[in-house]
Amino acid sequence: MDRRTDGRVLTGLVLIVTLFLVLLERRYPYFFLQDDNRDQYLPYFVHNARALLHGEIALYNFHQYLGLPHLANGNAGALYPLSWLSVLVSRLFWGHDFAAIDLVVCFHLVLGSAGFFLMLRAMGLGRPASAFGAITWPLTSYFLYISNSWYVVSGPVAAMPWMIFFAIQLHQGERPGCSLAALVVARLLLIFIGHPQFFLYAVIFEALLILLLVPGGHNLFRPSRARLWYWASFAMTAIFSLPLVLPMWQQTRQSIRSGPIDYDTFVSGSTILPLWLKGLTDPYEGHVFQSISFVGLACLAFCLVAIFFFLLAIIRRKSMPVQRRRLLAVLFVLGAFSFLWAGSILVPRIIYLVPILNRFRWPYKLLIQFSLFLIAFSSCGLDLFLDALSQARFLRGRRLILDIAACCLIVIQLIQFGFLYYAHPVRALRIHRETVPWSEPLKDQLSDGRILSVGFDYTSEYTAHTLAFNYSTFWGLHHYAGYDALLPAANDRATPGTGAYSGYFDDLGNNRTTLADRLEALRGWGVRWYVVNPEYVRRYGELPLVRIAEDADRIVYRDDAALPLAYWVNTQEDPGIALSHTANALVLQTNRTHAESLIVNCLWNRYFKASLDGEPIPLAVQDDRPMIFVPEGQHTIRITYRDPYFSAGCRIAWSFLLLLALFGLLRHHKARSKHALAAARPAKAD
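The structure corresponding to this sequence follows.
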């Protein structure tokens, strides 16, 4: 393998994919800021960045659902460096936070293209075929049309090719220590992005591919040293992921997703074969699910070529190297398995019996793995086709012509993808129509109490003005509910009538209860502001609150009877209390002429720790709220969230890292001693 030439090709691929995405962003600014990316993940990113600027990791979020764990929900990306770095870059170059998601997704797609090229080269494919696959992989319609709703989908696009590449290098003995470390890091970055479902799918199919493709020793019971190190890499990944996995596992046990989901939910979102087939050749019209399977017509053609050469090899027996035949067979089998898992009847029933995996819904997420095997299989077909042409008499010794032909195929792929994305409207799981960037004119006014969003439609293309979902986190406000798929059961019980996926109270399409039934309870939790759909008022009448603002999209009410966010027990008022908070701590400045108990109007958590002027003090609970006895005078009170599972995970991970460093130093010292002894040994006389 000529690494210098590979490096030049790799640089060209990175520039091409980057230019393609830049042009896409010019055609549709903030292309990837749709659906959950806008109302869930962008607020998470901003919260992570705020915490970092305060010198902490965001373990908690006081902005939503009366306060709830943040890192432990597993989806917030609190340990993923790009989740906060992208916000800082967006602020630096754009002057706002709204470019963060697009920066991360575009980086993932470019990184995935580079990794796919190296993965195919490690599998033995030539440069033209590897470049063809590397261009096709990040630009397939599944990744662009799903990543603009869920940025986490771009995580496996970036990580999986690198994981496979480093695993192959480890087995080939290419700098095994570096390959092992890089493999573990690639997996860790993927799990830290969030959503363990995507991580587990990626790791399962990586392991299956390596197990079936790469020789690992004489037999299963006598593995090679490389195979042993490969299996050890999973243990290393597990240990280093404990700072996230331990808190997430604990929160899962206490959440609304604490057990296996029912089978109907498990298989909802399975791949529908007619829609998938339509999207292969005609992705230009219809719903997004009719458009997410497009990989380019050339890719499909060379899949057929690969099948032809494989069948020819079986018939002739010696027309194809054994390793290439094995590669084709493994890619075909794993591609078929991933597709059947995503859309068949039998395979999901078997998978549903597997613990952990039976907690995940929407099997069409497995189209990530299917796309990898499909594109790699097609690239093999192109490689075989070019090899066959190179043996033809009129092309023998004229490799440049074949390289030019491969470049033409890449251009054809780019033209097809460009026509789909540039010449057609944006597709996403849920479209937002607000002009980016937008602002919240009432942000300062709404900061002195909780917000409740009433009567809006979940399917609307305009949601930012509702301040529901996680928009309150984005603006630094406080909402009674929000959007959290791993919502703790305690928060769910304390916020009835809202659900876990929008924060809307009394959705117009699902009228569960009236606001009057809950008004007193809402006042008790400090809900002072009501952002209401005008249609709700027209249907159910004027609210018994004070209107402070209105336009065609919303009416904002104030409830003067709502309790403050912190108050004295005897008076239920807040004179002499100044409340602020960081990501993980509430800070109260008090000045009182007599001692009294103080209640903080958020949901109590057993991992809260309190201090008074820096000294630990007991923290009581009243009506599920933290309560503190405050002496007379001027004091500073801190209520800090400390997750013992995060701390334990960090201690274990750091201890293991120190052990690995010690092991490496001992091996290095042993090698140097052995080399010194060999150099000092006198040479034998002739």
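The longest helix spans residues 644-680.
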